[in-house]
Amino acid sequence: MILPIVAYGDPVLKKKAKDIDKDYPKLEELINNMWDTMYNAYGVGLAAPQVGLPIRIFMIDPAPFAEDEELDEAEQEALKDMRKVFINPQIIEESGEEWAFSEGCLSIPEVREDVFRQPDITIEYYDENWEKHTETYSGLAARVIQHEYDHIEGILFTDKLSSLKKRLIKSKLMNISKGKINVEYKMRFPNAKKAR
């Protein structure tokens, strides 16, 4: 089932999400619904707060980035097969020299800005079968994970912009929160009369 994606301005996007346990109600159904929602919106990642739930789950499938011809073959191959669910994740380490990449977000449609992040991360998490993993990622894979991880920490990519950039996009953000935007997927707007 496709869920509405929560738009910029909804308080759930600014809350630090809580861990869950194996008995979380209808977890498998939620994960399936989140995959459907993400693919329907042509996203490469989706976090539970983006569907209105302040819990520590996100998923990624950065396969569309594998088409980027600037990447080496090994990174392209890695991105193709990286469809993953992260439950109760903790980034243990971030390292390397920060680099910029133009990021966007399903909760903030039509806004893209350069965000600086470190290129290498180590993360601990449970998968959908409650198996624990500690893994290291680099480059675009790390970036997609960092972006989604920020969501469960109550951080949006726009929070990482300079004050000048924030001022320049302020009216766009206000319009998004009021639903004054055309999107191809189902959204819930905090300051609109009704969800579309």
From TrEMBL:
One Pfam family in the UniProt entry: Pep_deformylase
Cofactor(s) this protein requires: Fe(2+)
Amino-acid positions noted as binding Fe cation in the UniProt annotation, renumbered to this chain: 105, 147, 151
This enzyme's EC code(s): 3.5.1.88
GO biological process: translation
Keyword annotations: Hydrolase, Iron, Metal-binding, Protein biosynthesis
Residue positions of the active site: 148
One MF term in the entry's GO annotations: peptide deformylase activity
Gene3D superfamilies (UniProt xref): Peptide deformylase
Co-factor binding details: Binds 1 Fe(2+) ion.
Catalysed reactions, semicolon-separated: N-terminal N-formyl-L-methionyl-[peptide] + H2O = N-terminal L-methionyl-[peptide] + formate
Name of the top EC class for this enzyme: hydrolase
Domain of life where this protein originates: Bacteria
Similarity annotation: Belongs to the polypeptide deformylase family.
UniProt function note: Removes the formyl group from the N-terminal Met of newly synthesized proteins. Requires at least a dipeptide for an efficient rate of reaction. N-terminal L-methionine is a prerequisite for activity but the enzyme has broad specificity at other positions.
Name listed for the protein in its UniProt record: Peptide deformylase
Lineage summary: Bacteria, Pseudomonadati, Bacteroidota, Flavobacteriia, Flavobacteriales
